[in-house]
Design goal:
The chain is mainly α and 390 residues long. It has 2 domains: 287 residues, Serine Threonine Protein Phosphatase 5, Tetratricopeptide repeat, CATH 1.25.40; 68 residues, no CATH class. It is built from 16 helices and 5 strands. The protein has a 5-stranded antiparallel beta sheet with strand order 3-2-1-5-4, with no helix packed on it. Strand 2 and strand 3 form a beta hairpin. Helix 4 runs antiparallel to helix 5. The radius of gyration is 31 Å and the shape is elongated. This is ENTH domain-containing protein. InterPro entries: ANTH_dom (IPR011417), ANTH_N_plant (IPR048050), AP180-like (IPR045192), ENTH (IPR013809), ENTH_VHS (IPR008942). One of its GO terms (cellular component) is ribosome.
């Protein structure tokens, strides 16, 4: 059965290439030669060079080539063809020209179809062939890996190339903490995807993908190490939410250590893992360092105290400025102000009620402030300052 499947694949390749040659479709012919049905050998460097050279030109030429490539990837049911198409996409992401990479950055595009979503890929024909089932698992994993690679490149603002950037540390040090966390999270997702790699089976096409994954890890490890090192310097000044997010990223990275060491022996000697553990411990201390009532979480709430003078504060209370009386464990009223929770103590509540500044609305209670001309205020509803009453 396997020999018959191989023979059918050869016939298909010959027929498709002959048709493209007769129609003088140079790009299509190069793509067919690089993505044959042969399940044992990857596309040669000569075929890849010829294919990418045919697509190098204007943006219209690059867009047409990528459309042709993605259509072949999504139309095929043969695992070897799908893997070779993904190899071409990976080659563009790592070593392609600027125009090709620029056009590739729209795949997957937010808000549209994810052309690299092959999680349900199955070979619908010759299901008794064990090689096709093994390659199908590699199609699903490699498509996810290429997708993570593109998403990480989009978050970083550049494609992860084979050579390191000389200004990486300088640019990372100038980033805002929120942007730095976004970049780190995308890189952590890429590392987690690498850890899900299937076991190699000695297939030549699979071994080519394994080599590419090892090269990707070398690049990603360098980018992660720079950003974790930057957070080592910033961790003591992080806000509560930022410290929590950093701790979660470090924990996810730490859980990847054993898997990466099992797949890549060189990963055992990396200083990255010690750096990750150090930053994780510092982030944990930053989160739990205050155990007092005025803890880090409470300090993060945006609390604007209502005073007698409102010259530099909003003159009108919004719909979020109301008192909430929770039931159950806590009997203390809570005031929601600008999406923040603060405790209104009983003495303050009594004083506020005596000033007629609390007005029930059927569900909650609104807190009235001092605004508007005195003549327009209702009797008993005026909240006057000491200066006005003097």
């Amino acid at each position: 059965m396997a020999k018959l499947t191989h023979l059918i694949g050869i016939i298909k390749d010959k027929a498709s290439q002959s048709k493209a040659a007769l129609l003088s479709q140079r790009t299509t012919l190069s793509l067919l030669r690089a993505t044959t049905h042969d399940s044992s050998t990857p596309p040669t460097r000569n075929h890849l060079h010829t294919l990418l050279s045919s697509a190098d030109g204007s943006r219209a030429t690059a867009a047409a080539f990528l459309e042709l490539l993605i259509d072949r990837l999504n139309a095929t049911h043969h695992a070897a063809v799908a893997l070779k198409c993904l190899l071409v996409v990976h080659h563009i992401a790592r070593r392609g020209t600027f125009i090709l990479q620029d056009q590739l950055s729209v795949y997957p595009s937010s808000g549209g179809r994810n052309h690299l979503s092959l999680s349900n890929f199955r070979r619908r024909r010759s299901t008794s062939d064990p090689t096709s089932w093994q390659l199908s698992s590699w199609v699903r994993w490699f498509a996810t890996h290429v997708e993570h690679l593109l998403c990480a490149s989009r978050a970083l603002g550049f494609f992860l190339g084979p050579t390191p950037r000389s200004d990486t540390e300088e640019k990372v040090s100038a980033l805002a903490t929120a942007d730095l966390l976004t970049e780190l999270e995308s890189l952590v997702a890429l590392v987690e995807g690498l850890c899900e790699r299937p076991e190699p089976n000695g297939n030549g096409l699979v071994e080519e993908i394994v080599g590419l994954a090892r090269g990707d890890w070398a690049v990603v490890e360098r980018e992660v190490r720079v950003r974790v090192g930057e957070f080592k310097e910033r961790v003591e000044g992080l806000k509560f939410g930022e410290a929590v997010e950093l701790f979660c990223c470090m924990k996810r990275l730490e859980e990847c250590e054993d898997k990466m060491v099992g797949m890549i022996e060189e990963a055992r000697e990396l200083v990255l893992w010690d750096l990750v553990r150090e930053v994780k411990d510092k982030a944990r201390f930053q989160v739990y360092r205050d155990d007092e009532p005025n803890s880090k979480l409470r300090k993060q709430t945006t609390m604007h105290l209502l005073t007698h003078s409102h010259r530099f504060s909003p003159t009108l209370l919004t719909a979020r400025d109301f008192l909430r009386f929770p039931s159950g464990r806590d009997n203390k009223p809570m005031m929601i102000y600008k999406c923040s929770f603060i405790t209104l103590r009983s003495p303050n509540l009594v004083v506020t009620k005596s000033e007629n500044r609390i007005m029930p609305d059927g569900v909650n209670a609104k807190l009235l402030g001092c605004h508007g001309p005195l003549a327009n205020r209702q009797p008993g509803r005026a909240f006057l300052s000491n200066g006005a009453t003097a």
